Amino acid sequence: MKEITCEELNKLPVVPGDKQKKAEESIQKKYHRQLFTPFAKACKTYKLIEEGDRIAVCISGGKDSMLMAKLFQEIQKHRQCNFELEYLVMDPGYNPDNRALIESNAKSLGIPVTVFESDIFDAVDNIEKNPCYICARMRRGYLYSKAKELGCNKIALGHHYDDVIETILMGMLQGAQIQTMMPKLHSTNFEGMELIRPMYLVRESDICAWRDYNDLHFLQCACHFTDTCSTCHEDGTTSSKRLETKKLIAALKKDNPYIESNIFKSVENVNLDTVIAYKKDGVRHHFLDEYTTGV
């Protein structure tokens, strides 16, 4: 019998395992309407994927980013536009068990990740004021830098619909401002790079349903305190405030089943004629600037 060299072995096609097959079939069939349809709709509505893109799919190890990677693989099969994908995992200082969990999940789901390391956890360890915010900003900077090094022009993050409406409400109640988590942004520090959020229209409950149906177990949080609790979110907000907002929305939904879509649409239906003041490109505009006394 002829011996197979390592080089020849690496060229052999990879046969998907049972867990990968089930996860992919559930996206194609059982959860197609709940997951793939809103994913594809967001990509089309907000023009998140364009011809010739090379997108760095940023995987934190949680349910949202892992599903995002699988949805990217699925939409790439449709070949409606030519684009390339890199699956990035940044290790900011995980303990060995957490890193092993991420790598194990990626392998069993057929996600070919590129893992790179940073010292972010050590850098923010002694920061007392807003460590979560600083950590999130640093993580994003490292991801931009690595993605650009790999020839990518975009990074994709796994924020979903519930993240968006919670951010809108938190901005009003906690930050005294009206703003939203945008579906895409130009990077201010990395020229030619964009951030996209293709999970923008996907509901968290549907992500959880897919995870549980496939009996998948993901990292709960990508922050320094993953070992003991979930304390921060990708945008740097603490989970306590976000959890309070999540509970508030759930309570309001009992009386108004449309509360979630109303919050989402509120930032699409802004009437500047009825706004006292607003900012555009860092410049503050006041309604009195153009107000004339009636005759």
Short description:
45% of the residues lie in helices and 12% in strands.
Can you characterise this structure?
With 295 residues, this protein is an alpha/beta fold. The protein has one domain: 3-Layer(aba) Sandwich (Rossmann fold), CATH 3.40.50. The chain contains eleven helices and eight strands. The strands form two sheets. Strands 3-2-1-4-6-5 form a six-stranded mixed β-sheet, sandwiched between helices. Strands 7-8 form a two-stranded antiparallel sheet. The longest helix is centred in the middle third of the chain and has 19 residues, at 131-149. The termini are far apart.
Biggest sheet strand line-up: 3-2-1-4-6-5
Helix content: 40-55%
| Count of runs of 4 or more consecutive helical residues | 11
- Our measurement of the CA-to-CA distance between the termini, rounded to an integer number of angstroms, reads 100 Å
In CATH terms, the superfamily is: HUPs
The portion of residues forming beta strands comes to: 5-15%
As for the CATH topology, it is Rossmann fold
Specify Rg, calculated over alpha carbons. 21 Å
Care to count the β-strands? 8
- State the secondary-structure class: alpha/beta
Helices and strands, in N-to-C order?
HHHEHEHEHHEHEEHHHEE
| Approximate shape | globular
Q: Tell me the major beta sheet.
A: 6 strands, mixed
Number of domains: 1
Overall mean pLDDT stands at 88
Unreliable segments of 5+ consecutive residues: 225-236
